[in-house]
Write a structure and sequence with these properties.
mainly alpha, Arc Repressor Mutant, subunit A, 3 domains, 9 helices, about 75% helix
């Protein structure tokens, strides 16, 4: 197979992979290697994707953060972990997640759950809501503060 055909095949595979959602460069590289393309062809394909602004880890990280906060809210720590697992550079991860406010996100998530927890006494309320927030990756301090705040608000109503 001539190299140009192989490069075009790798680009076509990358386009198809990117058609579902944005990807990190590491994800694209891994996918193309799994498809059997050589290191040289994969690197050329990544250069071409970068030139056409189809592969950019900073843009991908921003997309991932925005998507997470909109559809599956999690703590800053868990979003950072997910991005590191996708091999996004640490400085990009720090830059993109700098403005995430765990307290606000935890409060929003807890408020959304209040209608299902309003009938509970404090120990059960605390256990259920704190478990839910901890599962979403929030620290003990954030969970404790949020649960106490939401309990107080619930008692006023």
């Amino acid at each position: 197979m001539p190299e140009s055909d192989s490069l075009q095949d790798s680009l076509n595979a990358a386009y198809r992979y990117l058609s579902y959602r944005p990807r990190s460069e590491a994800e694209i590289r891994h996918r193309l290697h799994r498809r059997g393309f050589s290191n040289e062809v994969v690197e050329k394909a990544l250069i071409s994707l970068r030139e056409h602004h189809l592969s950019d880890d900073a843009t991908f990280a921003q997309f991932w953060k925005d998507n997470r906060l909109s559809f599956r809210p999690k703590s800053k720590r868990l979003i950072q972990k997910e991005l590191r697992e996708k091999h996004v550079a640490a400085e990009i991860v720090d830059q993109v997640t700098r403005d995430i406010d765990d307290e606000a996100i935890a409060y929003e998530l807890g408020s959304a759950r209040m209608h299902t927890l309003a009938h509970l006494d404090y120990p059960h309320f605390y256990r259920r809501l704190s478990s839910y927030l901890a599962y979403r990756g929030f620290s003990y301090e954030v969970v404790r503060h949020t649960v106490a705040l939401l309990w107080q608000e619930g008692q006023r109503h």
